[in-house]
């Protein structure tokens, strides 16, 4: 073959290769449009099951792990806000590194084979500090947030265009081959729009036009925005959008649910928030039965508010009741029950998206919503019982169906039940915390007192106490207010039963009081009432007295109108009970110092910790004390947490990285801390010699702090004889509704079942981690479960009396029996 011929062949092969690459690229590009039924991706309607995962609320080494578990939970999309204040902490200075690498996060979503929904805001609320606004926006001249205000619109537009440009440069929008199929501008604006009247209406029109003009190639949404301007889609947020959403504001827009609240975020002083898997599933099935085609769980992964990122009084742990808890572990049955729901809904995809819907009344509180493709047998039905207490039997197309209270049965073929929202087939689990022997061995705590300043130490002096936020500029929680008071001997009460009282009116959120360097006490507001008045007896002396007040915020506010005008800090101060009567110290002359000394010295870092003298810490300490110790990383690879119940209020750092605020002394109405354990990501740790630093504001005992490993090794099943078959076994089995249900148990992380803690077939009651034997039960059930399950990574048990007892007589005759099994997972199975 001649060189010329070989050259020609190589040229043809090169052209073919280029053509193949070009064709492959074209195949990855996705056109995203919509109509009145759904989003349309590459010409095909889609059902979107999305979950909120916020990249700043977990370290990058957890991103792929959490996204992979989300995908296995049946999601095909991930939604995230974009957090302005972390990306532009100072005007014009951008940060997209580490936790804040938005491009990397979106690419990780794509690597896990899912779509992305980008919620730009830039106001996001999200129980995030200042609703996502950077502090410097508060100081822009003549600014009013979220209205037809030129300074605000200038910066909002600049931020939006910066983020869109960054996404486009990384080719992350679907028409570029990326995963982003939907974007959001603004957030729940209807809740404040009325306050701005015509300016609010003008602003929302401007925001929509500005967003659409960026030409991302994907649709835009506005949640809770009834008048969303075309072509922006108005979407629903809430717990039950299937029944509360009035629908899109135009018939050619689809029904989208941008926030389905999986529980409720928690604030300090609150009891645990709950939302059952059954209630969540009912709401989602209801939504899809009523023309919904996209649901986004808020939150799907709980996440952690590291550092000072949470808004007012919000705990460091965010949405721990989500399907994936704060540590990234599936919370069953919520995770598994929703996974099965997604599978059942996908079976209905064709009739749901292309069929014609109709509704039939089946009785009081009973109805069937049917989707049928005309001229075919392709059909899906949703049979619902809206009564929250009473189960019912319904006749649908000549067949009888049992409907538990507050439930929806999904029939992908309008005949066979594949799933019922109230019937949980998925296994349950229970979280436990174990004290790490390795990490807690030889802990040696040292302490260093934080100095209490006087007015002479103050940086800023003013006649009256100054507003706190304007002084701290969100660089610290803390602002010292100091003044002095000269008293004569005869100014003080002579009677021993009369003691002067200090009274301080505070706009929030909390405060510690010191007189002559001694701790007097603390006051606080609450999530609902941030302002408070503090009163306490004080020991004053003849001569010079120093009053030092440490005021603070516990996160900036994140919602409502006029965020830029919110205030905090000391308002007025009085001394009562003196011989000359009440003294008003409000105009006494005050000094102000931002932050505490240890923050400025970075005592929480290895280098900074050498800048002060430390002494041995023994027992309970005093207010405003720094503590440090060193520990080795816990054994294994389970998540890690700190138990801080022996402390009161403060901040914690590990190897210089803040794991957030703690406030265990603020008890809920249940008499317990709102949060006792604090997540320490494994990526924060070294194998040995990890520096743990606590800044304790009120006095605590560090010697009782423990380092824990976190597990979900307690696995349970709770099934009755009338439970329905698992979704994954439905297809192709005509008589599936008559099959015997099976209780399935599977250990996480390839561990094996090492112990059967509980097994009863009869009328047991309780929940995973706390089952109790009832009045009636089959004999030998525990023995049978042990024979079936011990030493295995997974096992399955038929819920049938003949298989769960060694006697020939049916146990507990005349009642519907329940099988409750609780097992413990131990060491990993050896290959």
Description of the structure:
- By secondary structure, this protein is α+β, with helices and mostly antiparallel strands.
- It has 5 domains: 30-347, Glycosidases (TIM Barrel); 356-424; 433-448 and 599-710, Jelly Rolls (Sandwich), CATH 2.60.120; 455-595, Sandwich (Jelly Rolls), CATH 2.60.120.260; 740-828, Jelly Rolls (Sandwich), CATH 2.60.120.740.
- Discrete helix count: 15
Strand order of the largest sheet: 4-5-6-7-8-9-10-11
Secondary-structure-derived class: alpha+beta
Cα-based radius of gyration, to the nearest Å: 31 Å
Q: Name the average pLDDT.
A: 93
Largest β sheet strand count, sense and barrel closure: 8 strands, parallel, barrel
CATH architecture of the largest domain: Alpha-Beta Barrel
- What percent of the residues sit in helical stretches (DSSP H or I)? 10-25%
* Low-confidence runs: 1-27, 725-738
What is the molecular shape? globular
CATH topology of the largest domain: the name is TIM Barrel
CATH class of the largest domain: Alpha Beta
Count of strand segments:
44
In whole angstroms, how far apart are the ends?
56 Å
CATH superfamily label of the largest domain: Glycosidases
The percentage of residues in β strands lies in: 25-35%
Count of spatially separate domains: 5
């Amino acid at each position: 073959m001649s060189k010329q011929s070989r050259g020609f062949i190589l040229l043809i092969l090169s052209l073919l290769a280029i053509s193949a690459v070009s064709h492959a690229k074209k195949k990855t590009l996705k056109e995203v449009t919509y109509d009145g039924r759904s989003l349309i991706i590459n010409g095909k309607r889609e059902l979107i099951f999305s979950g909120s995962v916020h990249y700043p609320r977990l370290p990058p080494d957890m991103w792929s792990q959490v996204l992979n578990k989300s995908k296995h939970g049946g999601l095909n999309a991930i939604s995230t806000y974009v957090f302005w204040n972390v990306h532009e902490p100072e005007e014009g200075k951008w940060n997209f590194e580490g936790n804040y690498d938005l491009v990397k996060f979106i690419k990780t979503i794509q690597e896990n084979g899912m779509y992305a929904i980008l919620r730009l805001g830039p106001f996001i609320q999200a129980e995030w500090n200042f609703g996502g606004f950077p502090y410097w926006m508060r100081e822009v001249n003549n600014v009013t947030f979220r209205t037809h205000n030129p300074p605000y619109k200038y910066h909002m537009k600049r931020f939006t265009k910066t983020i869109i440009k960054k996404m486009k440069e990384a080719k992350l929008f679907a028409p570029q081959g990326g995963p982003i199929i939907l974007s959001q501008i603004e957030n729940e604006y209807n809740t404040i729009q009325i306050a701005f009247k015509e300016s609010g209406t003008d602003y929302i029109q401007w925001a929509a036009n500005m967003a659409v003009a960026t030409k991302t190639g994907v649709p835009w949404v506005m949640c809770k925005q009834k008048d969303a301007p075309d072509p922006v889609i108005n979407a629903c947020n809430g717990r039950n959008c299937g029944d509360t959403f009035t629908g899109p504001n135009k018939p050619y827009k689809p029904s989208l649910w941008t926030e389905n609240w999986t529980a409720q975020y928690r604030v300090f002083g609150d009891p645990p928030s709950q939302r059952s898997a059954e209630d969540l599933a009912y709401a989602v099935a209801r939504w899809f039965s009523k023309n919904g085609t996209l649901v986004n769980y808020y939150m799907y992964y709980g996440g952690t508010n590291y550092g000072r990122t949470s808004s007012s009084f919000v705990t460091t742990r965010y949405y721990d009741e989500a399907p994936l808890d704060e540590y990234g572990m599936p919370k069953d049955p919520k995770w598994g029950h929703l996974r099965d729901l997604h599978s059942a809904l996908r079976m209905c995809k064709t009739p749901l998206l292309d069929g014609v819907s109709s509704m039939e009344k089946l009785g009081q509180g009973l109805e069937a919503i049917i989707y049928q493709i005309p001229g075919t047998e392709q059909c899906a039905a949703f049979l619902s019982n809206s009564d929250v207490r009473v189960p019912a039997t319904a006749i649908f197309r000549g067949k009888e169906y049992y409907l538990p209270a507050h439930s929806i049965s999904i029939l992908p073929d309008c005949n066979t039940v594949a799933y019922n929202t109230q019937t949980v087939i998925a296994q349950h689990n229970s979280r436990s915390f174990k004290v790490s022997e390795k990490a807690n061995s030889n802990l040696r705590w040292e302490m260093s007192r934080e100095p209490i300043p006087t007015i002479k130490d103050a940086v800023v002096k003013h006649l009256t106490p100054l507003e706190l936020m304007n002084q701290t500029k969100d660089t610290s929680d803390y602002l010292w207010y100091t003044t002095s008071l000269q008293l004569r001997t005869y100014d003080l009460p002579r009677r021993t039963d009369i003691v002067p009282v200090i009274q301080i009116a505070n706009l929030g959120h909390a405060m510690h009081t010191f007189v002559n360097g001694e701790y007097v006490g603390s006051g606080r507001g609450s999530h609902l009432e941030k302002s408070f008045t503090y009163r306490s007896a004080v020991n004053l002396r003849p001569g010079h007295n120093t009053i030092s007040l440490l005021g603070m915020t516990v996160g900036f506010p994140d919602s409502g109108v006029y965020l830029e005008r919110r205030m905090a800090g000391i308002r007025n101060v009085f001394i009562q009970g003196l011989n000359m009567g009440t003294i008003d110290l409000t105009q006494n002359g005050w000094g102000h110092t931002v932050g505490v000394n240890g923050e400025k010295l970075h005592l929480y870092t290895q280098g900074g910790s050498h800048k002060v003298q430390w002494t041995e810490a023994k027992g309970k300490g005093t207010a405003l004390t720094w503590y440090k110790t060193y520990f080795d990383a816990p054994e294994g690879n389970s998540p890690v947490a700190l138990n801080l119940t022996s402390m009161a209020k403060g901040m914690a750092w590990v190897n210089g990285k803040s794991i957030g605020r703690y406030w265990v002394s603020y008890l809920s109405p249940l008499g317990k801390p709102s949060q006792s354990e604090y997540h320490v990501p494994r990526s924060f740790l070294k194998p040995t010699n990890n520096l743990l630093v606590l800044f304790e504001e009120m006095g605590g005992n560090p010697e009782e702090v423990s380092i824990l490993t976190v597990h979900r090794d307690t696995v349970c099943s709770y099934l009755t004889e009338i439970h329905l078959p698992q979704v994954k076994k439905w297809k192709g089995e005509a008589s599936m509704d008559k099959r015997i249900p099976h209780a399935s148990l599977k250990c996480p992380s390839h561990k094996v079942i090492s112990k059967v803690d509980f097994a009863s077939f009869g009328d047991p009651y309780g929940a995973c981690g706390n089952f109790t034997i009832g009045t009636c039960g089959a004999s030998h059930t525990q023995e049978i479960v042990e024979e079936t399950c011990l030493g295995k990574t997974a096992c399955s048990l038929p819920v049938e009396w003949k298989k769960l007892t060694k006697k020939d007589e049916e146990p507990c005759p005349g009642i519907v029996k329940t099988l409750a099994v609780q097992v413990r997972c131990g060491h990993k199975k050896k290959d």
